[in-house]
Amino acid sequence: MSTPNAKPKNTSAYMVQAAIAFAVSLFGTAAGIYYLPLDAWQRGFLAMSGLFLVTSCFTLAKVVRDQQEAQSLIGRIDEARLEQLIAEHNPFRSVS
Fold this sequence. Notes:
Blueprint: H1 12-35, H2 40-71, H3 73-88
Helix pairs in contact: 1-2
């Protein structure tokens, strides 16, 4: 029985595309706020709201990922194997 890949990896091209998309959208939002015909306090409010939205998205993505990993059967099996390996390991045991 083969073990499925427990941790799929993203390609470097996907990571670069995600970083570029994030930078472009953040720059576009900042430029849009800067060029709006508003007072400084209104621009500040929009900028702080945008920053809060970005940080909230990162937090939500991390929480969803952590919850999915915790519920994964493969993750729990691997964790149990690791705990068993650590429990059985005794560096002070003499070899006889």
